[in-house]
Amino acid sequence: METPDHATETPAEASATTGIAAQDWATAAADPQYRAAVVDLLGALAYGELAAFERLAEDAKLAPTLGDKAELAKMAAAEFHHFEQLNQRLTAVDEDPTAAMEPFAKALDDFHRQTAPSDWLEGLVKAYVGDSIASDFYREVAARLDTDTRSLVLSVLDDTGHGNFAVEKVRAAIEADPRLGGRLALWARRLMGEALSQAQRVVADRDALSTMLVGGVADGFDLAEVGRMFSRITEAHTKRMAALGLAA
């Protein structure tokens, strides 16, 4: 999972130096509600990385050239490494990784089933747009986490190279056949809507996560800030659409 251009700029990243954001895991985890929220967050991230690995491996079958296939295989391997990092962290804090991921499996599986790409280009747009929306969301939350958890979350959001790869391939395809632009733009808009709906459903179903977002566990997030957060995510999506050569 990645945010290739780190398109969102969260004020909290610069100012979150007090409260939980200034504590280490051992101190912050003394609050059972905060601990539950972090376990949920890591579980959701871990399943997202596992799903990204599976999807990239599947997308490689659609690759038009051997070089493209190899690039996607390399990216899939990077996603699996991120999954392993999260698994190891959950185990280290005495949590069962499978149990932590389980609550999020159906929602993510449903999202991927509803947005299965019909061809190579749709798969690239989905990886670039869909994964980046999720990464933007996690980056926003990471700014409010304890120092140890924040470092881990940001490390697994590192760019695997898929962003630049997708932009290069999609732009080249549209230049060769401008008619593709309309279809891919509609596809990206659908992905945006489905991704935000899925994220809202997941958060609504998990009390600890929702509390983290609206305040009480993580300092500084209130309902108004949640609205601003989604505005930043939407703005980042518009920038990525422009990078692809598509209308938002």
TrEMBL record:
InterPro entries: Ferritin-like, Ferritin-like_SF, Ferritin_actino. It comes from the Bacteria. CDD domains: Ferritin_like. SUPFAM superfamilies: Ferritin-like (SSF47240). Residues 32-216 form the Ferritin-like domain. This is Ferritin-like domain-containing protein. The lineage of its organism: Bacteria, Bacillati, Actinomycetota, Actinomycetes, Kitasatosporales.
